[in-house]
Protein: DNA polymerase III subunit delta
Amino acid sequence: MITLVGHDQQWAEWRAALAGHRMHHGWILAGREGLGKATFALAAAAELVAEPGVPQPPPGHHPDIHLLEPLPNSDDEAKKKEDGRPYLRKRNINVDQVREMQRRLVTRPTLGLRRAVIIDAADQLEKGSVNALLKSLEEPPQGTFFLLVVHQLGRLLPTIRSRCTIMRFHPLAEGDLARALDAAAPGLDPATREAALAVSNGSPGAALTFAEQDLGKAWSAMKRLVTEGDPDFALRGELATAIGQRPDRDRIQAMLESARMILVRSLPRVDEPTRARVVEAHARLVTIAAQAPIYNFDAALLLMEIGGLLASVARTRESAS
Structure:
């Protein structure tokens, strides 16, 4: 789990609203996926429902914090969730989930005067779910506050947006990102940590997801391909070994993003002729990355092409011939 780091401006806005006399009942936490919006929502909800002198239950068990998220996509995945293991979710939050939440809102909060409803993510609501939620936003029960986690604000209906205060989240600064990753995944080897920070684009969730792929050795091999070339194919062999014989789609995508970022990071240090080769190789990687989820590429051939694109930047005897 990502430790909540940064977002000082958002905390200041939230706490100023808490301290006010008429806090808005609906909040949209908007920003691309992986920035820590859901973690923020849980922590903010805990501050919202806490009252002086009222003992609070441990995180995850508060009766006045209701979390709506996509359900497990099968009975087997539901069992994984019960066991505390990673599980696959359905793509959307269905209308029955929203209606069940609304039935619970008929009663008063359990411990205090306030309760929070977190929807993660509101842009994953089914059409019927959106209409049902709109009714609650139009006539919110007393003491009920809604925190809508939204990855793509443009997908949310204007009628929902107009009834909420929008709080925008931005990529973390480099130092905050490193602190979040180190707290969530301590003890990473240096190459994996470097790669995760490089490809995450300020998103702690993306950094952690990448780190879990354990591509440190592949990252090191790709960096050497760009600087040394690969006339005898030895580095491409190292890359294939690091990736494994049967990488899944997520691993292939992580490797493609790594290769792309290595090229991007090399641009400030190269001369004009090399810059042209970097741009050409980068464009080809972008094309492959777009095609990879659609086409069933042979992993070995794909690795050879990616390795060749990286090696071409070095312009060794191999690429000059």
Summary: The mean pLDDT is 89. Residues 213-320 form one domain.
